[in-house]
Amino acid sequence: MQYGKLGLVFTNHIKESMRKRNFTASDVLKVLSTGKLMKEKEFDDRYQNWKYRIEGEDVEGEKLTLIFSINKEEDAIILITGC
Questions:
Q1: Strands, DSSP E only, in 1-83?
Q2: For each of the chain's 83 residues, which pLDDT tens digit applies?
Q3: Is 23 exposed, middle or buried (0-12, 13-18, 19+ CB in 10 A)?
Q4: Which of 25, 35, 50, 65 lies in disulfide reach of 31, CB 3.0 to 4.6 Å?
């Protein structure tokens, strides 16, 4: 799946969050397109990357928060979790 020129990578963790919290890839795309970054990026020592938090509304108007990182080598957004 693509978001602009960037690929989207859904981790196993976000896939599980999607099942448990009943949101879809369409919801993720809407939040990425219309949501707002909520905090300064945070460095994740374990994975040696920066994590970002974005909040917005899904396609049904429900609040959805996503945590993601960016893999510059692969030109991809790594979707970590959602709630």
A1: 2-3, 6-10, 36-37, 42-44, 49-57, 63-71, 76-82
A2: 766 678 899 999 999 999 999 999 999 999 999 999 987 889 989 888 899 999 999 999 999 999 999 988 888 999 999 99
A3: buried
A4: 35
Q: Which two tokens stand for residue 67?
A: 């945590």
Q: Is 33 exposed, middle or buried (0-12, 13-18, 19+ CB in 10 A)?
A: exposed
Sign of the torsion angle spanned by Cα atoms 6, 56, 26, 13: positive
- Give, in order, the Cα–Cα distances in Å from 57 to each of 9, 46, 50, 73: 20, 30, 23, 30
pTM for the complete prediction?
Answer: 0.87
Q: For the purposes of burial, counting CB atoms within 10 Å of the CB of 66, is it exposed (0-12), middle (13-18) or buried (19 or more)?
A: buried
Reduced to 3 states (helix: H, G, I; strand: E, B; else coil), residue 21 is helix
